[in-house]
Amino acid sequence: MNAVANAPRPAPPAQPWIHTPAVDGAFLLAPGPLAALLALWLIGSGRGAAPLEPWMWFGLIVGVDVAHVYATLYRTYLDAEERRRLSSWLVGAPLATWVAGVLLYAWRPAAFWHALAYAAVFHFVRQQYGFLMLYGRAERDLPAWCRHLDRATIYGATLFPLLYWHTHLPRPYAWLIDGDFFALPPGLWRGAAPLYGLLVLAYLGKEAWLAARRRGNLPRNALVLGTLLSWYVGIVLAEGDLGFTLVNVLAHGIPYMALSCIYGARREAQLVPARRLLRDGLFTRRRVVLALGLLVALAFLEEGLWDGFVWREHLPWFPGFAALPAIDDRALLTLLVPLLALPQMTHYVLDGVIWRLRAQPAWRTTLFGSAPQAGASAAHDMAGAT
User: Fold this and answer.
1) Which pLDDT score is estimated for 11?
2) What is the tens place of the pLDDT at every residue in 298-330?
3) Which of 253, 250, 248 is nearest to 237 (CA)?
4) Is residue 375 one of the residues assigned to a domain?
5) For the chain, how far is it from start to end, CA to CA, in angstroms?
6) Other beta carbons within 10 Å of 54
7) pLDDT category, 369, cuts 50, 70, 90?
8) DSSP string over 226-259
9) H or E element: which one contains 102?
10) What angle do CA 99, 103, 106 make, to 5 degrees?
11) pLDDT above 80 for 282
12) d(Cα 100, Cα 84) in Å, to the nearest integer?
């Protein structure tokens, strides 16, 4: 009995980082919470309703929000093997989304913006779920109720603030354009708020139970708690477009670009030099800035076209695009607006495909160096990261 009592306790399992603690912490887990803390500081200092200055708009929207959309290119169109494997999706997704966009815009422009906004919301929510699956990939031996509670909490961390938004319209910010969300009765939030609190308490209790059994998962907890903080601050507490955009863009765009670069580096390690984008690699430590710079350049081109043809709100930031004619003809806009939104719409569709383990299992071998377990369920999907 004494020998058993004095036996050393088993060491806790290794933490399931995607890259390293430093890289995961800085680029995958910290952007959202840090942006939320900055937004809280702005609110506390009386600047929560400050406008989004043009240089802030350029840095956040062009440099992160639009730029991250093009990171999907590295995972799809610019990978020869993926082009063959996903050829039907790579042709069909842009064609189908453009046709759908044209039909919606022809019916009612508002219908197009409603659909695009809700597609974006779904995409943002699923990215958090996808990261949860990555950080919980080694926890299949936990009781099923633990995994169910994790999923409920990550969805609650995103959907409850969104419910608050829908029941407190109008808000001093918009997802895409004013009026792109539908109003819901305020009573829905009053009924849901206690459930939100109970869900958070249940998750914290479950983590205390796991910690007592030396089964704590640092990155998963950082992700869940960071999502709770950033979505609540960025939506419920935000007092203006600056706070909302700061949290919303940084919490979503930076982790997606970071994951794309991590995946790109490991993908290059699988390929012979002749099959890489650059013979010596585009995602090496010295050249990753070039990979990110290409994304920003494409974002600059897209936003320049949007501003030249449609919005004409930030033309000083897009030299040369002011010469483009402002389009106000409804028939032309019906074709043009869905065309300009095509990278965004294609990104949403493809990211719902390329990270799904059942349909595309090779990515897990690339990212983690091991094949998926036999019989793995959809719970192991990246599930549409971004």
Assistant:
1) 55
2) 999 999 999 999 999 999 999 999 999 999 999
3) 248
4) no
5) 53
6) 12
7) confident
8) HHHHHHIIIIII--SHHHHHHHHHHHHHHHHHHH
9) helix 87-107
10) 135
11) yes
12) 25
Sign, Cα dihedral of 250, 253, 255, 258: negative
- On whether residue 135 sits in a domain, the answer given is yes
If DSSP states are collapsed to H, E and C, what string results for 152-195? HHHHHHHHHHHHHHHHCCCCCCCCCCCCCCCCCCCHHHHHHHHH
Residue 4 falls inside a structural domain: no
Single-letter code of the amino acid located at 106 = A
Phi-psi region of 72 (alpha: psi -120 to 50; beta: other; left: phi over 0): alpha
Model confidence over 28-69: pLDDT tens digits? 999 999 999 999 999 999 998 988 999 999 999 999 999 999
Would 372 be classed as within a structural domain? no
Residue 77: give the domain boundaries.
18-367
Tell which residue, 288, 372, 346, has the closest CA to residue 76: 346
Kindly give, in sequence order, each residue whose CB lies less than 8 Å from that of residue 269, ignoring residues fewer than 6 positions away.
none
pLDDT one-digit tens code per residue, 139-156: 989 999 999 999 999 999
Residue with tokens 């939104």: 341
CB neighbours of 41 closer than 8 A, spacing ≥ 6? none
CA quadruple 44, 46, 47, 50: dihedral, nearest 10 = 140
Residue 42 corresponds to which tokens in the numbers above? 């702005």
DSSP secondary structure, 329-346, as one string: -HHHHHHHHHHHTHHHHH
Backbone phi and psi for residue 23, each to the nearest 5 degrees, phi listed first: -70, -45
* Domain count across the chain: 1
